[in-house]
Specification:
382 residues; alpha/beta; three-stranded antiparallel sheet
């Protein structure tokens, strides 16, 4: 059987763009201060190209921040929350972690968790527009995404804080409904890790300038100076020292995205990869999408559960062992690296199908899933 030319199906850091080589990084301004004009111009270029590809409104600010998407989300939570109650939509691991931080680190008591189990979406209509709302757009660990923003009120009083790290550059984002949006370079465009992106609407900026958090703010979280937003952060003047090698890599991914047709082309590639998996699942007698509603299936972090009778009859620990063995066989065969489900998710597979993945590689992988599963069945169902 054919093997994928690129077996990288990790959900982060994700596959590099097709045709990538280290030669793409030859323009990196190594050994330079990131505050010098030329390096700072590169940082500003990342911001400008990102805004253009995503179709971000002109009056939104976009900055490069420390510590990947996690840093961007935490920066937003620590800087903006407090004046109002908070609703958190939680249907997978990371959204639940944000709720934990709000409750136990920021110690906000006016907190409501609106939950759903893995595979589902919570009742979004329970969100109170007078409260701030924290949520992911795409559940990276569950493979379940939001499909609309009609539940977000136009005249909302609270802010909407959206972790969009596995959705940005692969899904349409309703910017008019989102006050804070975060993502990282290591997801859909396959950039190297450690840097995050933070987008702020005018409403979010207003909150920053009117609200002083009651807790100490670490330096890397500080978005304001003397009561005003620190505009430098959104022009390439980063809070801490960025890797100019990673900056060059991010620019390479952005230029590739522009060359293939921008956001519509990126979305089409991801959706095409999902369609290939969906066609295979229709024929499979052992695999199903973790997403219960087909409309909510993620086109990036595609999560599959195992439904074979022998598998579902086992206890959880044995199911975990069997799923890990399945992922291990795929790696041993060199057809899929890092394709196991997230540690907190139901045991199964998670196949990254974002825009940097070729559909031909997805299609080449699928027969290997059946072969590997047949081997696991022999080991565990005897």
């Amino acid at each position: 059987m054919l093997k994928p030319q690129n077996p990288c199906f990790s959900s982060g850091p994700c596959a590099k763009r097709p045709g990538f080589s280290l030669a793409a990084l030859e323009g990196a301004l190594l050994g330079r201060s990131h505050r010098a004009p030329a390096p700072k111009a590169k940082l500003a270029e990342v911001i400008a190209r990102s805004k253009a590809i995503l179709g971000m409104p002109a009056d939104y600010r976009l900055g490069i921040v420390p510590a990947s998407d996690t840093g961007a989300v935490e920066m937003a939570l620590w800087s903006l929350l407090g004046p109002r109650g908070v609703d958190v939509l939680a249907w997978e691991s990371f959204s639940a972690e944000w709720a934990q931080d709000i409750a136990f680190e920021l110690k906000l008591t006016e907190l409501r968790m609106i939950r759903a189990p893995y595979g589902g979406l919570p009742d979004v209509w329970k969100v109170d527009p007078k409260r701030d709302t924290v949520f992911v757009w795409n559940g990276t660990t569950s493979g379940v995404r939001l499909v609309a923003a009609d539940w977000i009120a136009e005249d909302r009083e609270g802010l909407t804080i959206c972790d969009a790290t596995s959705a940005a550059f692969a899904m349409e984002l309703p910017w008019d409904k989102l006050d804070v949006v975060t993502w990282s370079w290591q997801k859909v465009l396959g950039g190297e890790a450690a840097h995050g992106m933070l987008a702020l609407s005018p409403r979010a900026v207003k909150r920053l300038e009117e609200h002083t958090p009651p807790w100490p703010m670490p330096k890397i979280f500080r978005l304001t100076k003397d009561g005003k937003i620190n505009e430098g952060i959104f022009k390439g003047d980063t809070i801490n020292t960025p890797s100019m090698l990673c900056v060059e890599d991010a620019l390479d991914g952005l230029r590739w995205a522009e060359d293939i047709g921008g956001l519509p082309a990126l979305i089409a590639r991801a959706e095409g990869n999902l369609a290939a998996v969906a066609a295979w699942v229709e024929r499979s007698d052992w695999a199903r999408f973790l997403a219960m509603d087909p409309a909510t299936r993620s086109c990036t972090s595609v999560c599959l559960k195992i439904v074979a009778d022998w598998f579902t009859a086992m206890d959880h620990d044995k199911q975990v062992a069997a799923a890990k063995r399945l992922a291990a066989i795929l790696e041993e065969e060199g057809v899929a690296l890092d394709a196991g489900s997230y540690r907190d998710a139901p045991p199964g597979l998670r196949i990254w199908c974002g825009a940097t993945v070729e559909r031909s590689d997805v299609e080449a992988l699928l027969p290997w899933l059946d072969l590997a599963f047949a081997n696991v069945a022999k080991e565990f169902s005897a």
